[in-house]
Amino acid sequence: MKYILMMNGTKAHFAEYAKWSKQDIEANVAFMRGFSKQLKDEGVFVATEGLGWPDQAKLVRAGKDNVPITDGVFPESKEFLAGYWIVDVESPEQAYQIAARASGAPGPGGVRGNMPIEVRQVLSGHSDLGL
Amino acid sequence: MKYILMMNTMKAGCEGFSGWEKKDVQAHIAYMIGMAKDLGKSGELVSAEGLTFPDQAKLVRAGKDGMPITDGVFPESKEFLAGYWVVDVATPERAYAIAARGSAAPGPGGAPLNMPIEVRPLMSGPPPVNP
Fold it and tell me: Average of pLDDT values for A114-120?
C-alpha cells in the first residue's frame, strides 16, 4: 500500500522558516536528506519532492477554448504543500510511524519540530474508486 | 523544468464523487486517463497520483519518544489534495496550458468543471539558506 506523507504550511509558516539561522536550516536539510536515504535503505521509498515556495504558486483554470486563466492570489489561511514523500508499506500504522519520524525533524536550536504531517493512502489505480 | 499541478478541490467530509452519476464519473476518469496518456506520449509526464478521500486522512505528529500521535480532525476550510501531476516542460506557460486541460475535465452532465489547479515549480535542491 502506498501512502503519501505531506508537509503543509501557510505563508506565515514559510515566513517563519525563512527566519531560521543558517545552522538550523542546514541541520534540517541534513535530517531530510538522511531520512530519505534511510527510507531507501529500508525498501519503503517511492518518491520525494520539495516544492517551490508559495510566492511561485499560480492557480490555473480553463477559460474559453481551454485557454489558461492564471491567478496568484490566495487566502491567508491557505495551506501550501511544502513537500512530500511517498512510501510503500504494509499497514497504515507503518506509514504513521514514518510520518512521526519526519515530524521529529529538527527545528530552531535543533529542537524537535513536531510539525504535523498529513498522511493519506494513494490510489493504485482508478479501480480503487469501486467503479 | 519540473512543475507540479495540484487538484486541491476536496473538502473535509468529502466521500468521493457523491451525487455524480456513474456515467459522469466514468467520463471524468476516461478524460484523466486520456490526458495522462497524451502527456506520456509527449514525454512531459513525470508522475501522477490520485489520493484517497479526506475521510481517510490523518494528521501525524511525533509525540514523546518519537511515537506517532494521530489525529483525524481538520478545519472545514482545509483544502485536501485530490491528486496531482508532475510534468517536465520547457516553460511555465506550457505547465499552465496542461493545468487548463486538467481544469476542463468533465463533471456532472459532461460540462467542464473548470476546477482550479495549483501550479508550482518543484525544487531541484534544498531550499535557499540564509546568509
Answer: 95
